[in-house]
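Hi everyone,

Forwarding the result from last night's run.
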Amino acid sequence: MYAVIETGGKQYRVEVGTELEIERLEAAPGDAVAFDRVLLVADGDAASIGRPLIANASVSAEILRRDRGEKLISFKYRPKARRRVKKGHRQELSVVRISDIVVDGKSAASAIAKAEEARKTERQRLEEAARRQAEQDAALAAKLAADKAKTSKADEGTKAKSAAKPDAKASAKATATTKADTTGTGAKPAAKATAAKASAAKTATKEATTATKKATTAKASTRAAPARKTEKD
């Protein structure tokens, strides 16, 4: 919503929050003033035009400070008469801030305050939603990190078990070998020695039997030889 007001013989287009310099008013800084000469009020697509003024319309403002405008030079002369007049002027000003525009009981400041409150509520709602989302993301990240740590720990344990298994197998093998050496391997040489002794005894018996047979045969041959000789004789 905006309005067109008249003060000090000039017209100004103003909105809520507008700061402008107008010709000095009698009010002191910090005072509130009201401008009743409202020529036009527009609210969106609707507009009210005064003829010349709008009834039940006013613009409120607050005096911020007093100031002076730039110096203006006024120079007059008359040719061929040696007449020269030079004057300087600085206008006394009041700086005001528009606080409200009211027409037919409708206040622009109230509408702006409601809109600002709605924006603030919406902003707070969005901030709250963003905060909740951030908390959920942080919780999810922490959960993923914990799961990753557990997985890494499990992998390390599996690797450690895999590395320990060959050692266990080697130990078991060495134990089995030791046992075999203690029980089986130590017995095998004794069995082999016994078998060798039995074989040697058997061979000796065979040789003794063969020698006995040969001796008996030779003895029989010796006994038979003289008899044959006697017969020839």
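Residues 88 and 190 are 142 Å apart (CA to CA).

Cheers,
N.
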